[in-house]
Amino acid sequence: MPVKRPHRTRRVFAAATAAALAVTLASCASSSRDTESIASQNNSGAEGTLPVGESSGGATGEPASTDGTIIFGAEGAPSMFDPLYATDGATFKVTRQMTEGLVAYTPGTADIEPSLAESWEPSEDGLTWTFKIRQGVKFHDGTDLDAAAVCFNFDRMYSQSGAGATQAQYWSDTMGGFKDQVDDAGAAVPSIYSKCTASDAGTAVIELTRVTSKFPNILGLPSFSIQSPAALEQYDANNVVAEGDSFKYPAYALEHPTGTGPFTFSKYDTANGTVELTRNEDYWGDKAKSKTLIFKIIPDESARKQELQAGTIDGYDLPSPGDWEALTAEGNQVLVRPAFNVLYLGLNPKNNPALLDLKVRQAIAYALNRSEFVTSQLPEGAEVALEFYPKTVDGWTDTVTKYDYDQEKAKSLLAEAGQSNLTLNFWWPTEVSRPYMPNPSAIFQAFKADLEAVGITVNETSKPWNGGYLDGVDAQQADAFLLGWTGDYNSPDNFIGTFFSDPTSRFDTADYPWGAQLSEELATADSEPDADKRAELYVTLNEKLMGEYLPAVPISHSPPALVVSAAVQGLVPSPLTDERFVGAYKTN
Amino acid sequence: MLRYTVRRVGQLVVVLFILSMLLFFWLRSIPGGLASSICGERCTPQKIAEIRTVLGLDDPLIVQYFKFLGRVFEGNFGVSAKVIPGTPALDVFLQRFPATIELAIGAMLFAIVLGIPLGYMAARRKGGILDNAGIVATLLGFAVPVFFLAYLLKFVFAVKLGWLPPSGRQDPTLRATRITGFFVLDGLMTREWDAAWDAFKHLILPSIALGTIPLAVIFRITRSSVMDVQGEDYVRTAEAKGLATPVIRRRHILRNALLPVVTTVGLQTGALLAGAVLTETVFAYPGLGAALAQSFREKDYPVLQVIILAAAATYVLINLIVDLSYAVIDPRIRTTGAAR
Asked: Are A87 and B50 a contacting pair at CB < 8 A?
C-alpha cells in the first residue's frame, strides 16, 4: 500500500511553517525608530572616552530635529515623582528634569549658580538669607512662581509629620528636625530651619536657627525643589501613609508632579517600564532641545549595555568600568564624571580594643597598598584618597599625614603597640557594585593579602549588601569594613560631618578619648559663617583626622561614568550625578 | 463533577493558607529586610528604627502576620516598595501578569507547534535522520541553561544581527493604547497594527528561550507515546479492517497518543514561572518572573508574597484544568466517577 501523507499532519506542518515564516519576517522587518545602526556607529570615529569632567556638549552636529526623542536606560524604577520623599538616584534622575530649586549646580561641577532665585544675600551673622525670586516663571500647571510659592514649599517640607517625616530623609539629614517633631524624651528635635517669609512677590527670606556651611548649597538638591502649591494641595501631596510593609503615596507623587523645569510629566507606563517626559514649551530658560525624554527601566546592567549596542536606547548610567574601552571602541561616548566620592576602610574598636591604639590603626593604613589597588582595579582617573573627601571640596589639604605603602613601618608599629598577633574581623559586601566600589570581592582579597603580609590574621565575613551587611556594620559588629559615600553637594560637612558627627555611628568614635571632641570640632567648623575661616578650620580638622584620630582609612576617589551613543550631544557629566537633559539632543 | 471541583478548590485554599504562613515567617527571618531596603544607602540606625516604628515592624511576628491576614481578607496585599514603588502589590501582580501570560503562551506555542509534529514524525520514522537529530537536539535543549540560551539568542539576533529587539515589551515611542495589558491583543483590538507587531517581535526571542525545555519534553513524550500507541492491538485491527491511513492516524493514533502530551503541556505551563524568572531577567521583560527576582533581591515582601501565592494558586488550578480536560478527552475517566 503506498504511504500517503496524512492531511492532518500536513496541516500541522503548514501551521508550523507559517509560524516559522512569521519569525523570519519579523526578524527582517526594520524597526520604525530612528536609531543608528551599530555599523554606522562603528564608523563614526567618535572620540570616545572623554577627559574627566569634559562634556560632549554641542561640539558637533545639529539636532536631527527639534522633535527628537532621547531614550535613556535607567537602572531602577522611580520610587515616585515627589523628590521631597525620595533618596534614590533612579527617582532623582527623572525629577531633576521636571523640577528646579532656588539654586542649581553648574553643569559639570559641584558649584552653585542661580536658578529660581536670581540672587541671594546672607545677613552679617549668616542666619538670614534673602532670595530674589526670578519673575515670569510659571509652574507646569500655569500658575506663577513667586516668593509666596517658595515659602509655601519650605513650610510644607518643615511641617512633614508621621510617615511623611520618615520619608523626607534629605530634610532630616541636612536640616534636622521637623516642626512638631519630638524625640523619645519629648524634647523638640532641633532644626536648622526657622521660617520663610515672602516680603514681596519677588523676595523670599529664609531664617536659620544656626549658621551652617551647607547653606545655600543644599538648596540645589532635588529634594528641595520648588513645586506648584496649587498642585500640591489639589492632589493631596502630604498624604503619605504607612501601610503594611511599605508606604503609600498620594496622587501628586504618583501622577501629578508639577515643577518649573524644562520637561513636564507625561506618563509612567508601569506595564512597559517606561517614564515619558515632554518638553515644556513655556520654560523660562533655553527650551529643551529634544521634544521627548523617555527613561526605560532596565535593572540588569548587561541588558542596558546590549540595548545600547542594539540601538534601542541612546544611553545609560553607570557602565561597568570594565566595559568602558569596549563601549568606546564601538563608537559610543563614555562620559566620565569627576570623582566626588570616597571609599574607606572603616574601623570600629567596639569588639576589638586593640584598635583603640592609634599605632594599630596607623599600622593598618601603612599595610594597605592603596596605589596598587587604584592602578589595578579602578578606572582611569581614580586617585588614592589622602583624606576623607576629594580635592574640589573646601578645606582639602595635602598637609595631612600620608600613609604610603610601607610594610616594615606597619610591622614595627604593631610591635610597638604589642599587637604583633592582631586578629581583625573584616567584613565585605556581596551582591553590590557602587560607583566608589566596583568590585567589593576583589577589593577585599587585595587588602586581606596586604594585612596578612604584616602578620595580621584576617577573619572574613561577607554578607549581601541588603541582606545583613549594612545592618551588621551599623550595629557595630565589624572591626573593619568596606564602605563609601558619594557627595550630594559641595561641603566638607556632607562627607566628614556625615561620617563622624555622631559618636555612636558605625565608627564608634564614642569609645575613643577624642570622639566627643571630634563631634564638637565638626559642629564648630560647620557653624563658622566666614568662608575663609571655615576653610581653615576644616584644614586643621583634616590634619587631625589623618594624624591624631584616624577613625577609618580613606582609600580612593573613583570617577563613575555614563555612556551615550555617538549621536547624542549636549549631555554634561556631573560629579553629583546631576545630569540635566535640557541641552541633550541627537544628531543625524 | 461539581463535588470533585469543590473538593479541589478547598485543597487550594488550605495550600495557600499554609503557604502564606510559611512565606511570611521565612521572609522575615532573612537578615536585612524591608526597612533597610526602603531606607536605602544613606540610612542611619536611627532612621531604620524610625521606619520600623512607623510601619509597625517591631510588633511580634505573629501579630504582624494576623494584621497581614486581616488586610488580605480586605483584598489588600500591601504596597510595593521597590518593583513599582507606591503601587498596591496586587496591582503590581495584575499589571505584570499579562506580560508573563503572553510570554508563556508564546513559549508554549513554540513548544507545541514544533514539538508535537516533530515528535510524531520522529516516531513514525524511528531511527531515521529526523528521529536521531531530534534526540540530539532535545538532549542539547535539556543541557543548555535557560539564561545562557537567552543571552546567546539576544547576542546573535538582537545585538549582532539587529533583527529583533533585545529586551523589553514594546518600543515606548509607539505610545500604544493599553486596554487588557496583553500588548499584542491590545494592538489588535485598537487596530494599532504597528504596536501589535512590535509587541509580537519583542516576544519572539524570550519565547524561544523559555520554550526550549518544554519543546524538548513535548517532543520526547509525543515520540514515545506515538510509538506505544501505534503498536496497540486496536491500531492493527483498524488497519486490518482496511481503514484509510489518515483516519487511523488521526482517530486512533494521534488522539490516544495526545493524552500524556496534554498532561505534559499542563505541567510544563505550570513550571514556566521558574524559567520565566531567568528569561525575563535576561530580556529585561517586565513580567512576573522579573518582578519575583527583583522583589526577592530588594526585599519587596508585599510583591513577593502576592506573586508566590498567586503562582501556587495558578499551579493548582492548572492541574485542576488538566484533570478536567482529561475527562473531556478520555471517556473512560468520565465514567469512573471523577466527572460525575
From this structure: no
B227's enclosing H/E stretch is helix B193-230
User: Which residue out of B147, B167, B198, B226 would a mutagenesis test of the A interface target, given it has the greatest number of A Cβ atoms within 10 Å?
Assistant: B167
Among A370, A372, A426, CA closest to A402: A370
Angle made by CA atoms B313, B318, B324, in degrees to the nearest 5: 130
Give the pLDDT score at A563: 97
CB-based contact B162 A79, cutoff 8 Å: no
Closest by CA to A552, choosing from A481, A486, A457, is A481
Residues of A in contact with B152 (CB under 8 A): none
Please give the C-alpha separations between residue B8 and each of A481, B5, B158, B309, B312, in angstroms, as whole numbers: 53, 5, 45, 16, 14
pLDDT of residue A61: 61
pLDDT-flagged residues of chain A (< 50): 1-60
Chain A CB contacts of B114 below 8 Å: 16
d(CA B76, CA A338) in angstroms, rounded, equals 46
Tens-digit pLDDT string for chain B (340 aa): 677 777 777 877 888 889 889 988 888 887 767 777 777 767 777 788 888 888 888 888 888 898 888 888 888 888 998 888 888 999 999 999 899 999 999 999 999 999 888 888 888 888 888 888 888 888 888 888 888 898 899 999 999 898 999 988 999 888 888 888 899 999 999 999 999 999 999 999 999 999 998 999 889 888 888 888 877 778 778 777 777 777 777 777 777 778 788 878 877 776 787 788 889 988 989 999 899 988 888 888 899 999 988 878 877 777 777 777 776 676 666 555 444 3
Q: CB distance A87–B37 less than 8 Å? A: no
Nearest residue on chain B to A74, judged by CA atoms? B284
Q: Which residues of B115-152 are buried (b: 16+ CB within 10 A; e: fewer)?
A: bbbbbbbbbbeeeeeebeebeeebeebeebebeebbbe
Residue A356: predicted pLDDT = 96
Residue A306, Cβ neighbours under 10 Å: how many?
23
Residues of B in contact with A80 (CB under 8 A): 85-86
B86, B159, B194 ranked by CB distance to A306: nearest:
B159
Between CA A516 and CA A530 the distance in angstroms is 24
With CA atoms as reference, report the closest residue to A443 among A355, A358, A553: A553
Give B5→chain A minimum CA distance, Å.
33
Predicted pLDDT at B1: 65
pLDDT at A566: 95
- Nearest chain A residue (CA) to B251: A8
Chain A: closest CA distance from residue B4 (Å): 35
Q: How far apart are CA A554 and CA A400, in angstroms?
A: 12
- Measured between alpha carbons, how far is A353 from A53 in angstroms, rounded to an integer? 43
Smallest Cβ distance to A296: which of B81, B172, B197? B172
d(CA A107, CA A56): 12
- Exposed/middle/buried for A323, CB within 10 Å: 0-12, 13-18, 19+? middle
Residue appearing with cell numbers 489588600: B76
The one-letter amino acid code at B96 reads: R
Kindly provide the b/e burial profile for residues A440-478, where b requires at least 16 CB atoms within 10 angstroms of the residue's own CB.
beebbebbbebbeebbbebeebebbbbbbbbbbbbebbb
What is the rounded distance in angstroms from the CA atom of residue A24 to the CA atom of residue A28?
6
Query: Taken in order B91, B95, B97, B98, is the CA torsion positive or negative?
Result: positive
Spatial separation of the C-alpha atoms in residues B84 and A163, rounded to whole Å: 19
Mutate to test the interface with B, among A245, A290, A506, A565 (most CBs of B within 10 A): A245
Residues 6 or more apart from B81 whose CB is under 8 A from it? A245, A246, A247, B34, B37, B38, B298, B299, B300, B301, B302
Shortest distance between the Cα of B191 and any Cα of chain A, in A, equals 17
Q: What angle do CA A572, A573, A579 make, to 5 degrees?
A: 75
